[in-house]
Amino acid sequence: MRAVLDVRNLTTRFSTPTGALVAVNDVSFSLREREILGLVGESGSGKSVTLRSLIRLLPSIASQSGEVIWQGHDILKMSPKEVRAVRGGQISMIFQEPTTALNPVLPIGLQIDENLRAHTTLSHRERLNRARELMDLVGIPEAARRLAEYPHQFSGGMKQRAMIAIALASNPRLLLADEPTTALDVTIQDQILKLILDLRDELAMSVIFVTHDLGVVAATCDRMAVMYAGRIVETGTIADVFARPMHAYTRGLLGSVPRVGTERSPLMSIEGTPPGLSSIPRGCAFHPRCDFATNVCRVSQPVTETVEPEHDVACHNSLAVLEAGSPVQ
Amino acid sequence: MPLASFILRRLLQLIPTLIFILIVVFVLVRLLPGDPTSAILGDRALDADVERINRELGLDRSLLVQFGVFVESVFTGDLGRSISLKVPVTELIAQRLPITMLLTAMAALIALVMAVPLAFWAALQRGRAADAVIRGAFQIGLSMPVFYIGLILLTVFGAKLGWFPVGGYGDGFIEHVHHLFLPALTLAFSLSAIIMRNLRSAIIGVVDAEYVQFARAKGISSRLILLRHVLRNALISTVALFGLSIGTLLGGAVITETVFAVPGAGRLMVDSIYGRDYPVVQGLTIALAVLVSVTFLLTDLFQAWLDPRVAR
Ligand SMILES: Nc1ncnc2c1ncn2[C@@H]1O[C@H](COP(=O)(O)OP(=O)(O)OP(=O)(O)O)[C@@H](O)[C@H]1O
Ligand SMILES: [Mg+2]
User: How far apart are CA A45 and CA A250, in angstroms?
Assistant: First the structure.
């Protein structure tokens, strides 16, 4: 199937008073229609910045390079007006923090309506109906009354749903979901995941799904990409990556998932903490924490190779990792 | 309706404020140097006359009784008669206070018109040349004394160019506005500097907020982003500051009215203090204090409208 989104060598830098920080480094991946790509990695690995970079939603201190080919056109080369048509209309984003993402002084209804006004030709009455329908869709009861309410009158979970309603308002072709279910309890989390899966089928929507929860990735995604220190270190189908991880970091992540049924302790965990952006190690950024590291890892940055069909990895010792086997199953 | 109950609560809060104002005015006027009796009779009055006047003015009774009489007369709309002008104080206030109110309102409007767009520009150009120039210019505005700015404007636009009258108030609304323009501009300078600085930093604080980013992610126009998402949130703190500045503005009006010979309440206040025209000072103080309280109330309501979290 044809790729709807093709990201090539995407790099995002922040110029801070203490120097340039590379938050997203030479990231490439592609996404097909209806595909759900899970993006995983530790805190600070650049998942949120990657999502925002796709629609150029960055502060003025940021600069970007590379290509983000969306349905044949490079978003990074679009005029501000063209980008506005894409944002919220064709590509929508669910932010990580529902409490800070909603404007505290505007009623929820208006915040939904803004999206509809920008991207549809619906009349006032039709937009109101659509807003009610969206509230029902994401499971906010008493839609008519709640549209007039303000974010501070919503609980955390309800804010999360309201934000999802806003993102889905204009039937986007691509949904960038930045940990869309973290603020929710498990049953609601399942409802939201199911909703996203349904919409994927109904609207032929593609999804990039950022999460810390590998269980969710296994249950909902088609493929996954693993990020470490601003780079994508491994991509592949869920089955391939879970069964045959080829990057030591991926293997560590899989091993740190508590196994269902047995005692809830992880099999293993990755020693140490991820590096800060200002002190990314030379060579492979993961080498100080890696059990498989050899001399080459300390000096040279591994290039991304397609080792198996549809399974890419950037690791000097991928075969050794593969041989060590997957910690899951 | 949370807003309706909020308005009601704020109105009820006005009552203790008004009582407090009355107490302060009552005490302050009695602390002024000199007393009304000698103001009426002069310094070389006979003891018998002094006693008679004291009795007529009720000054021979206990302070508590005097206060009771004072409160009663204020609530019946009787603020006494001016000693020097021989007319009811309420009549004087009705003549002069609207002039000061128009002056203050014009000053506030001019200050906003100058400050808001420039605050936006400075904030969005943060750290660049335009920002530095705007902030520098307002810094000068803030550090110059009101009467000095007034004199410069008066000399250039009044005397030299003749665009504006150099004093007085004129007849009819248009002429009033024409006469009050230079004094209002004078008065507006320091307020606009304060507002500009506050709003600029408020905008800088809001412009990178997550909800502004989320609004941008919806693909709405930059105009909507700036007005609806940035300005509205940034204004919340500025409106509070603006309300608090109205008192200062009225104080500034006294000086400005003197420089521009505007026959407003400020001038009347100065004249009455010099002339020890006790009832006028008392009545004016009450009127101004009520005016300030009402302004506070209005800014609170505006704030509640801007920020629904206020009216809880
Ligand atoms: N505006 C900014 N200026 C400077 N650095 C930034 C800025 N925004 C993000 N960063 C840095 O970019 C890096 C990646 O951040 P990002 O938010 O993408 O991480 P993440 O993978 O989403 O983490 P989490 O799982 O905690 O959400 C972090 O080190 C962060 O400090
Ligand atoms: Mg994040």
Answer: 13
Same domain, B265 and B164: yes
Ligand 1 neighbours by CB, cut-off 6 Å: A 14, 16, 21, 23, 41, 43-49, 59, 96, 277
pTM of the predicted protein model: 0.83
Instruction: Identify which ligand lies nearest to the alpha carbon of A225.
Output: 1
Query: ipTM of the assembly?
Result: 0.91
Report yes or no on B85 lying in a domain: no
Q: Give the residue from A51, A58, A105, A120 with the most B CB atoms within 10 Å of its CB, the best one to mutate.
A: A105
Could you tell me if residue A310 is inside a domain? Answer: yes
> What would the pLDDT profile of A101-141 be if each residue is shown by its tens digit?
999 999 999 999 999 999 999 999 999 999 999 998 888 99
pLDDT of residue B39: 67
- Cβ-based contacts of B216 with chain A (< 8 Å): 57, 87
In a domain, B84, yes or no: no
Would the pLDDT of B170 be above 80? no
A290 CB within 8 Å of a chain B CB: no
pLDDT digits (tens, 9 = 90+) for A175-198: 999 998 876 778 878 888 888 898
Beta bridge partners of A3: A32
Q: How many helices (H) and strands (E) does chain B have?
A: 13, 0
Residue whose CA lies nearest to ligand 1 atom number 9: A49
pLDDT greater than 90 at residue B243 = no
What span, in angstroms and rounded, lies between the C-alpha atoms of A104 and B294?
Answer: 27
Per the structure, the complete domain to which residue B23 belongs is given by: 2-76
d(CA B90, CA A52): 64
CA distance A255 to A11: 29
